[in-house]
Structure formats: C-alpha cells, structure tokens
Amino acid sequence: MRHESTVVISASPGEVWAVLADVPGWPGWTPTVSSVAALDGELRVGHRFRVKQPGVAAAVWDVVEVEPGSSFSWATRFAGGRMVASHWIRPADSGSEVRLQIDYSGGLAPLLTPLVSGRIRRFVEAEAAALKRECESPTRNDR
C-alpha cells in the first residue's frame, strides 16, 4: 500500500528542510503528530525517534536515509508489517516541491489495509498542508 501527497511551497528548499529536519518541532506545526522524542539526537541515519500520533500507539521510527537539504526516510515495524515514510524536497519555480510518501508492507498488509488506509491518507495530506502553512507563515522568520 502506498499513499503520497505533493505540495508546492513558496519557500526555498533550505527553509523547508529547516522545518522538516527539526523532527522534535513537528508537534508545533502539524496536527498529525502529538509528540516526538529524539532517542539518539539529530536527524541522521541510524538515529531513532519516538513519535506519538493522535489515535495511534506511539512508534519508534528508525532513520534509514538522509540527504541533507533534500530528503530523508525512516521506517517502523509493527505487528504484521513495516511502514516507510519518505520526504523529498526539490526546487520549483515558485519555491519548493515537497513529496511525502508512506509505504506499508508485510504479511498482514492486505488484511490491515482496509482498516488503516483512510487514516494514513488523511495524515499524509494533512502533514503536507501543515508543512506548507508553516513554511509560508509570515511569522516563520520571527521564531
């Protein structure tokens, strides 16, 4: 199962990366994340983050790939599956294009898809919209 959302943001890739790479700061701008604890420090391959989302049990996400300034992916395992969330930023004429993608796989994926697909899709879309709002906020540079 895959869900993705792409959004154009009127901010430079560097500005978008600053928001996206500050994972512990996510609860301040996206309604899809209630809390984040950096278990190993900054966003680097091999580091882990405990993420709590509304209506979902907390999960530990392992960073599996980072291209500073342009992308990162992390993964979590749970009963019957593995979820990989990827985040890409690329320059666009009006600022940046951001693509967020969730891939869910595993033995129970076909059974769980009808139960979780709608929520995952809503979370990905809400996160993309919230990232756009945060990066385009006139007060962003005042923080």
From TrEMBL:
Gene3D superfamilies linked: 3.30.530.20
Listed SUPFAM superfamilies: Bet v1-like
Protein name (database record): Polyketide cyclase
Organism: Saccharopolyspora hirsuta
